[in-house]
Amino acid sequence: RAAKPSAVPRVGRSEEPARDDAAVETAEEAKEPAEADINELCRDMFSKMATYLTGELTATSEDYKLLENMNKLTSLKYLEMKDIAINISRNLKDLNQKYAGLQPYLDQINLIEEQVAALEQAAYKLDAYSKKLEAKYKKLEKR
């Protein structure tokens, strides 16, 4: 037979008397499962809960292992970067020392360059003077 929905009392409203008492059926009393069924269901629940918690703890443990490995790799990278920075610093000091050793020669080159420029100016002046002398000589020669 088809079960009809049982009447649910309305909260906060006054209950009205049932108009058709024959149409309302009473719900059958709920039966509790047998003791063996409850024990089996509890064992099943605890087994599944243990499996779930084991999975959660395993996942968390794996996450921590991953973080540990990432930290180790990061630490190694920082050590490599430290070694590179130390090498760069050492090379920069060597380069500065070499530059300081070359500085007297660079100063001499600058001095020679200034002297060559002065000599070049003197040569231009001498050339201009010799051209004036030549022009005067040719003028005197024509007379």
From TrEMBL:
GO terms for biological process: anterograde synaptic vesicle transport; endosomal transport; extrinsic apoptotic signaling pathway via death domain receptors; lysosome localization; mitochondrial outer membrane permeabilization. Belongs to the BLOC1S2 family. Coiled coil: none annotated. Pfam families: BLOC1_2 (PF10046). Transmembrane segments: none annotated. Residues 12-34 have a biased composition (Basic and acidic residues). Residues 1-34 are annotated as: Disordered. One of its GO terms (cellular component) is axon cytoplasm. This is Biosis of lysosomal organelles complex 1 subunit 2. One of its GO terms (molecular function) is gamma-tubulin binding. InterPro entries: BLOC1_su2. It comes from the Eukaryota. It comes from Loxodonta africana (African elephant).
